[in-house]
Write a structure and sequence with these properties.
The chain has 19 helices and no strands. It has 480 residues and is an all-alpha fold. It has one domain. The longest helix is centred in the first third of the chain and has 37 residues.
Length: 480
């Protein structure tokens, strides 16, 4: 593994088992970087998968309560997760800043960045929680049926209390992963998923003497799970001496304007890019909602499945940001460039495999959500098969574009990727989807092909930008 000549000492050092593992790696720089990326990516990807599993469980539970509930739950869950993704994306600026400071051995700055992350999380949570609280009114303004919007609003008023801990957990996750300590993240998130499953069962159906809350129980179970994960990871950082030394929870009243603005400068474009991408899927969902509840249910099944597989390259993207940021902090741009392309390659390979599964086994996938043998579900099954066929085609480019964006975050290049995202996701993806789906009459399939077009162009342009970044021309010369 490539390392700077002066590694951080004491509490700032990487865990011993990390260097022991790296010592056993092959000599090849590419193979070594693959191992280094996977060391971070596997726990982080597993953590993302555990988070997606919470949504998967919620969707399955909604299906038990009926097609009306799964349609309404789809809208409510979509609104919550879009706002959570946007808030977490803005806070992901903590990761490259901490990784770079850590790579440079500046432990004091690591703590300063995390503390300003708390301020940013609080400032984001207040307005976004208000949007969630009045989610029913928002959905009605977007043209959703009153009954569906009301049921979605019930779900949102139960899960809104989990929004702040979701952002707090994002700050801690970025903190510990940027220090190459991803293992506790996956442990906590798996535990949170299990808690969510248990509380879903208890609160939905009213077990152990509790009232049956229905869809509100699903939202409340998620809230309890999110608080549990936040508290658990917070206690871990306080108990570990090497992490406690950074003072992530010290002097929380102290506001550092320069670092806060730096977080905003890096994080806001990331948040806008995430909003643009997720809003593409959200707008498609709203358009499909206007085409009927049956198509919306099929869309939710296909979207939930694609979201599950997307969690793996998302985790790889987080790891790629850390690897690139650490190596840039160590003044090793050639190694950082290699780390970025390794992360992109890993995501592309995984999503290629997932695309094959989508294409070959759609019925088996759909059976995870609904009874495919029930004649009443035949229309939903056929529509979901068509959508999964399109999803199979864009899996690989979806993985490439998210990892390329993660690599660019590692060099703190976020503004131009934001503009690229606006053009590709909205300018190309949404426009072409609208034309194919609603103007040419291809319905949901046409809207999904629009998604594929936008993601394809984004993957190509973002990868090209990372490969031609000026940091490489300037940095490699300085290394030589």
């Amino acid at each position: 593994m490539l390392r700077s000549k002066s590694q951080p000492q004491s509490g700032r050092a990487l865990p011993a088992f990390y260097f022991e593992a790296m010592h056993l790696l092959p000599k090849s720089r590419i193979i070594s970087e693959i191992y280094a990326c996977l060391f971070l990516a596997i726990p982080l990807a597993g953590a993302q998968l555990a988070q997606a599993a919470t949504s998967f469980v919620d969707t399955v539970m909604m299906g038990i309560l009926g097609s009306q509930t799964i349609a309404a739950g789809a809208l409510g869950a979509l609104m919550f997760h879009v706002l959570t993704i946007v808030g977490s994306a803005i806070l992901s600026a903590v990761s490259p800043l901490v990784a770079e400071a850590y790579g440079a051995g500046n432990g004091k700055r690591v703590g300063q960045v995390v503390r300003q992350g708390w301020w940013l999380a609080l400032m984001l949570a207040i307005p976004m929680s208000l949007v969630l609280w009045y989610g029913e009114a928002v959905l009605r303004l977007m043209g959703q049926e009153p009954e569906t919007a009301a049921l979605a609003g019930t779900y949102l008023r139960a899960i809104v209390w989990g929004y702040f801990p979701a952002l707090g957990f994002a700050v801690l996750r970025n903190f510990v992963s940027a220090l190459s300590r991803p293992r506790p993240v996956i442990v906590v998130m798996v535990g949170g998923t299990l808690v969510n499953v248990a509380f879903n069962y208890v609160l939905i159906f009213g077990k152990f003497g509790l009232p049956a809350l229905g869809v509100a129980g699903i939202g409340l179970a998620s809230t309890l799970s999110l608080w549990g994960m936040f508290v658990a990871l917070g206690l871990y950082t306080l108990q570990q001496r090497s992490l406690r030394s950074y003072g992530a929870f010290n002097n929380l009243r102290q506001f550092d304007r320069s670092i806060f603005l730096e977080l905003l400068n890096v994080g806001l474009p990331i948040g806008v890019l995430a909003a643009v991408e997720t809003s593409l899927f959200a707008i498609v969902t709203l358009l499909i909602g206007q085409l009927g509840t049956t198509l919306l249910a099929a869309h939710q099944i296909a979207l939930q499945t694609a979201s599950m597989t997307f969690m793996i390259p998302l985790g790889v993207s987080l790891a790629t940001t850390v690897r690139v940021g650490q190596l840039m902090g160590q003044h090793h741009p050639a190694g950082a460039r290699l780390a970025g392309f390794v992360g992109i390659g890993i995501s592309a390979f995984f999503m290629f495999c997932m695309g094959i599964l989508f294409w070959a086994f759609p019925t088996q996938i759909i059976s995870l959500y609904i009874d495919v043998a029930d004649p009443a579900n035949a229309t939903v099954v056929n529509l979901a098969k068509s959508l999964l066929g399109v999803a199979a085609m864009f899996q690989i480019v979806d993985g490439i574009q998210i990892s390329a964006a993660g690599a660019l975050r590692g060099i703190k290049d976020t503004r131009v990727p934001m503009l690229i995202g606006i053009f590709t996701y909205w300018g190309l993806g949404l426009t072409s989807g609208y034309i194919l789906g609603l103007r040419f009459g291809f319905g949901g399939v046409g809207l999904w092909w629009g998604l594929a077009i936008g993601l394809l162009v984004a993957a190509c342009v973002l990868t090209w930008r990372f490969g031609t970044a000026r940091e490489w021309q300037l940095g490699v010369r300085s290394e030589e």
